[in-house]
Amino acid sequence: MLEHPERIKRELVHKGAIIELNDDTMRLPDGTIEHFDFIFHKGAAAVVPVLDNGNILMVKQHRNAIDSYTLEIPAGGKNGIDEPTLDCAHRELEEETGYYTDKSNLELLISLYTTVAFCNEKIDIYVAKNLVKTTQHLDDDEFIDVYEFSVDELMEMIYSGEIVDAKTIAAISTYKLKYC
Prior knowledge:
Layout: E1 6-15, E2 19-27, E3 33-41, E4 44-49, E5 56-63, E6 68-72, E7 75-77, H1 85-97, E8 99-100, E9 106-113, E10 122-128, E11 132-133, E12 145-149, H2 151-160, H3 166-179
Parallel strand pairs: 4-10
Antiparallel strand pairs: 1-2, 2-3, 4-7, 5-6, 5-12, 8-11, 9-10
Helix pairs in contact: 2-3
């Protein structure tokens, strides 16, 4: 009997703009062969932007996958698999919120995998402080509104189900435990 499952083959089914969908043929520990969906993602970064008054900037945007608007921390995919997440977080902060800070003001808060059952997307989440107002630099397909909330208001929105995004829930909850 095998100690661990063994990948026999990975076949690319579809290559999209953000993800690659693969069919993995796996030999399980008991010797049976099964197929698993595997979504490859190049990785992402997110940021908890903390204003001088302690409030946190949040972005509201429509998410096609759930056909709904969500309130989230700013985030985005890496431009390439080798792009450092610090650079990605730094870029997404100003792009989505219209606030800037030096990279030295970004501190790694938590790293997480979004959906371990079928996807390798890993997001590094940073805390950003000493923010300076600039202007948003949205991508052509982005329509984002920016809001400011206290940590307690955000925690209440998590508990009430108003905030449903997993990375945001993990980030705000971790931030509260670590900094408040």
